[in-house]
Predict the 3D structure of the following.
Amino acid sequence: MNPIRLPALVSALCLALPLAMPSWAAALAPASDADPLRFLPERFETETHTVRLAGQDHEVRLHVYRHLPYVARPVDVAYQSLDVKVPVAIDGRAVDASAAPIVLDITVGGYHSVNNAQGGGAMGMMPPGMPPPGAEGGPPPMGQAGAPAVPAGEGRGGQRSFTGGNGSRVDLALLAGYVVVTPGARGWDNQSADGRYFGKAPAAIVDLKAAVRYVRHNAGRLPGNPQWIVSAGCSAGGGLSALLGASGNSPLYEAELRAVGAADAPDHVFASACYSPITDLEHADMSYEWMYQGVATRRVKVDETVSRELAAAFPAHQDSLGLQGRAGFGPVTGARLASYMLQTYTQPSATAYLRTLGQAEREAYLVANPWIRWDGQQASFSFADYTVHVGPKKGAPAFDSLTLGTPENRLFGTATVDARHFTPYSLRRASGQADAELEPGLRQLVDMMNPMYFVAQQHPGMAAHWWLRNGSSDSDNAQSVMINLATGLENRGRDVNAALFWDGGHCADDDPQGMVDWIAQITGYRRPGR
Ligand code: DHB
């Protein structure tokens, strides 16, 4: 039986038998009449996971708490509820996770809803009618471990992923003794019986903030240290992790949080891990064309005028960010961005990869990729050759589609309108009205979905620590989006660990244990007895 339905069953039984409530029914009664958001530590199921790390299997025994509503007035509790996993024994030895970091595992994909009652994880649960992976409006083809390898040098950037056979980062976090909280969340697809949409922006970020507040509200009851909440997600989930990390305690969301009955507690996070973040949505079209305009290996035909106009608008936007590069690079202007990306991220990523190869393998790779120069120590190449190698996958505009067909168009819909334009460029181009303006209120919604808005303002609630990763061949978004986020955060004094996985695709994670070790490093936490 689905435990989420238990309170309803218990209430029904109690109504039928008002004078004779059995003791077992009392034990299953709703959390607490006084506090609907109270976490009850004694109500768990037990599960055992086998987790592989460095060629060895480990047994992790967990207490699992499922389907806990994290708001007092849910719009739909199937989405606004979460699971908690607490390691209690590792390889047969008891562990105490009461002071451990808490990983908030954001499983949102495609800005789609995550149904916690049905097991969460939008990536594997697309609704009927959802376009197939890779198609407009559909989920992306994944670049994670197990994705089919594409030979290098074919304009698809290899799409390799290498985890060394290790477990997922969530399982590895449990093996390290951390608590993992996995929230459901509303998304653009949510529609009630009367046809109204109830998960359009900013619902997803409101829900994730409410989940963070729930964890803090239950400090001392819910295992783990709520001062060490670390959000993690990939793609749209990476974008939301970045937004959660950047917008901590912003009053902009307060009215929505109150409306759903979120706990009265802070919603900032200590650290944010973002993989292939799909974010900075209102600048994503121009960034994409700046990077890929005219690239011969583009996998779809685009309107060249649209592509050129968007690309031309980008440098002024980049200049306006006023970013300063690492290691004395100086201003990362539109004119200097490509060299900054190459020098700081892309070439070092190729170098690191080529150094892992044996000589024969490296020589074979270099023969297959003659555009890469190797001086015996370091890789170098031109930005243009690199973009040809990637082979961009999206059309133009990539996000605010002229036909309103993308997840982003639908994210910015309303209760009664499925999809809207959210950039003046696409609105004007699609309507043919050169002076058309975004609908009132939409500008603020777009800001509320953009971590760069908070970075630009030096928002005090921004997380202190950031782990940013992307596959070098991910073309779901321009590479500049994550790199600008990293640079903006560095310029505001945040601790940023950012890198590309060479030839990795969308959501690539070659180093899941790296994130787990990073959490140990920024918190100083070690599982007791280790
Ligand atoms: C995702 C991928 C996209 O290309 C996009 O535009 C939005 C979301 C995703 O994988 O979550």
